[in-house]
Design a protein that fits this description.
Blueprint: E1 2-7, H1 13-21, E2 26-32, H2 36-46, E3 49-51, H3 54-58, E4 65-68, H4 72-84, E5 88-92, H5 99-108, E6 114-117, H6 124-135, E7 141-149, H7 154-158, H8 179-189, E8 192-200, E9 212-219, E10 224-230, E11 240-245, E12 248-253, E13 256-259, E14 262-266, H9 280-291, H10 297-316, E15 320-321
Parallel strand pairs: 1-2, 1-4, 2-3, 4-5, 5-6, 7-10
Antiparallel strand pairs: 7-11, 8-9, 8-15, 9-10, 11-12, 12-13, 13-14
Helix pairs in contact: 1-9, 4-5, 5-10, 6-8, 8-10
Bound molecules: nicotinamide-adenine-dinucleotide.
């Protein structure tokens, strides 16, 4: 039985807690949270050991595994220290905030003890679409597109100090909200050779970062992909994703996978948390602890490198080569 500590018990920490305790091979043993009220909330719910200091928590030899659920700018240092202390690490997206940090972490994590949280890969519709792509039964990919149109207004960004700033969030709609959609885009369509991106802040003047990102992706398979994400919409519909194959069209909409118009898979509703987070956390965390199946830094490198390339392209007004 692995003893787990959650670091950061804000919006997503409680989702990890429930998922950890739904496994057969791990249990929530501790929480590390700087905010006293949030720390207490976890203690009240799970009767766990409480820490407010990360280094002190790391020295607890009873802890086998730590879940990093803190703001983006803290991920790299926490992951680096936890790996050095011999812990298993489950790290929320985006794994790191910069390209340099990500390549350092790949070198540091020699034993591949870091499990990356890109939980949308565990949605039944995405698993089914992955199987379809890998089987080759619909032929080659001709083109693909993804759209994320969500609403994050000034009040969302005012909630937490780290949001909406380059130094602490590392970007806006791309690195935070739509990174999951970009992740399954690259997971399903394969390597991305290059990208040309544009970003803008249309509607949220209170923040420094982009509220909208659009990009044209040249895929290694020869096809072209289109990606559009915004936080400036007035609602939060499920993202849409489409792959046009030689022999059919697959569409992922409203949590359902349609192939040539027929529903072939459907995501289940989450027991806790927001609908668009899905039940992926529970599935990803159970697969990791109970079956040893997980996505390593290598498995998510294409996603992370595409995020960094999109920001570079948007800043330099040019094409960025990824591979
Ligand atoms: N996979 C998903 O679908 C998903 C969904 C939401 C958030 N996230 C990710 O989870 C992470 C956290 O997001 P959130 O929305 O829960 O943020 P949040 O601000 O609600 O929570 C972060 C928590 O970390 C705590 N914290 C800050 N510094 C700390 C420190 N040094 N030691 C211990 N605790 C500290 C804060 O007090 C806060 O409670 C981010 O990386 C975010 O992108 C992922």
């Amino acid at each position: 039985m692995k003893n787990v500590c959650i670091v950061g018990y804000g919006a997503i920490g409680p989702i990890h807690a429930a998922a950890i305790n739904s496994t057969d091979s791990a249990r929530l043993y501790a929480v590390c949270e700087t905010d006293a009220d949030k720390r207490q909330r976890c203690v009240d719910a799970y009767s766990v050991v409480a820490y407010s200091d990360f280094d002190e928590m790391l020295a607890d030899e009873k802890i086998d595994s730590i879940h990093i659920c803190t703001p983006h700018h803290l991920h790299f240092e926490m992951a680096k220290k936890a790996l050095a202390a011999g812990k298993i690490v489950v790290c929320e997206k985006p794994i790191t905030m910069t390209e340099g940090e990500f390549s350092s972490l790949i070198e540091i994590d020699v034993e591949r003890r870091l499990c990356a949280v890109f939980q949308n890969r565990c949605n039944p519709s995405i698993e089914e679409l992955k199987a379809i792509v890998d089987s080759g039964r619909l032929g080659k990919i001709k083109t693909a597109k993804a759209t994320v149109t969500w609403c994050r207004d000034a009040s969302y960004y005012a909630k937490d100090e780290w949001r909406g700033k380059w130094a602490t969030e590392g970007g806006g709609v791309l690195i935070n909200q739509s990174i999951h959609t970009l992740d399954y885009f690259s997971y399903l369509c394969g390597d991305i050779k290059s990208v040309r991106a544009q970003m803008i802040n249309f509607a949220i003047p209170e923040i420094e970062v982009e509220d909208t990102m659009s990009a044209c992706l040249q895929l290694d398979c020869g096809a072209r992909g289109i990606f559009f994400a915004t936080n400036a919409y007035g609602d939060n519909p499920a993202p849409t994703f489409e792959i046009v194959f030689e022999k059919g069209i697959a569409r992922y909409e409203q949590g359902k996978l349609f192939v040539n118009g027929e529903v072939v898979a459907e995501d289940s509703k989450p027991k806790t948390g927001k609908m668009y987070w899905g039940r992926g956390h529970e599935m990803l965390i159970r697969k990791f602890y109970d079956f040893g199946e997980y996505f390593t830094l290598d498995d998510v490198a294409m996603t992370m490198n595409t995020v960094f390339a999109m920001y570079k392209s948007a800043n330099n007004s040019g094409v960025e080569i990824i591979i």
